[in-house]
Amino acid sequence: MASSTVLIMSPAFLCGNNIRRFPSHAPNARTRLRPITAKIAEKTALQYRKLGDSGLQISEITIGTMTFGQQNTEKEAHEILSYSFDHGINILDTSEVYPVPVSKETQGRTDLYIGSWLKSQPRDKWLSERSSYIRDNAKVLRVDAANIRESVEKSLQRLSTDYIDLLQIHWPDRYVPLFGEFFYDYSKWRPSVPFLEHLRAFQELINEGKVRYIGVSNETSYGVMEFVHAAKIEGLPKIVSIQNNYSLLVRCRFEADLVEVCHPKNCNIGLLAYSPLAGGALSGKYLDLDSEAARKGRLNLFPGYMARYKDSHSREATVKYIEMARKHGLTPVQLALGFTRDRPFMTSSIIGATSLDQLKEDIDAFLTTERPLPPEVIADIETIFKRYKDPAIL
């Protein structure tokens, strides 16, 4: 089991004289096929949305942190966090396994970088979300009560905080198809920790004041329904969030039936979408594999990492989306992030950046791209989707 942490800051902390600015780092690592004149609308304010049944109001952008401690130094991590929160973002996603790729030498370093930054911030002004993964005495990591407690207590220590606002299971204890595997493999079923054990362990941590809300990640409709049903029958905490992969290249898994399950009129589970840029692939930087941007990108730095965006039809589909973006005067980033931003079931999109330039481009895409995207843009997206569906399936 791995868990992920979200840190959420209240809008009050982000206003007035608290804004701090840092110098730009390296040039933007994203490239385009040729210069593009983006279609710029009047700059809008960042929006905030309620997360499921919780009392949390979170920004429509979440900052991902899995490069902190691997591709980013502690100083760079602090600059990225400060810029994000100074510009209205109030939710941060981390995990005890980070940074990635996972290694014994670096595991937990992301939490430590975040914890050192948080020491300069008022604790009552931000919220936290996390998941669990590494144990001292476990040969096989499971989402049982002992592992959940150990995960939370270690994370609290690394993050230098007393409680976590949103605790999510990083991926299910049972077998589910993930990371490019689309169909359920009947032969891979295995015994798993009961849903009730998860919830009772979470209840204990909530009662102790160490966790406020709970959620899931990389979950299926079956899993969400089981969690919701068990909570209702046994009077245990209800999950309020689901953190799943969603982008122009990965839509079917969520849109097929999770949309119905998570609907506010049904189970009311808020979606936190990770990889809205498909690991950077939708920026177009990997189309020229010999470019400096591609060579510095994590899909090339770490062989086999996110292979679903390289060893599939994703490249072909990405070319089509970029050509279409150009047709409408949009950058690839504006198209990809504008699409996830405007989905009616979206609570927040998780973006990661290894430089301030990347971060600024992503934030600007949310604030300056026409809201919502024009009907003709959506129509062209659907035309490409009908041809490629989910091209990241391996």
From TrEMBL:
* Keyword Metal-binding assigned: no
The chain positions of domain NADP-dependent oxidoreductase read 60-384
Source species, domain of life: Eukaryota
Molecular function (GO) terms listed? Answer: oxidoreductase activity
Q: Is Transcription found in the keyword set?
A: no
Q: Which keywords does UniProt give here?
A: NADP, Oxidoreductase
Descriptive protein name: NADP-dependent oxidoreductase domain-containing protein
Q: Which Pfam families match?
A: Aldo_ket_red
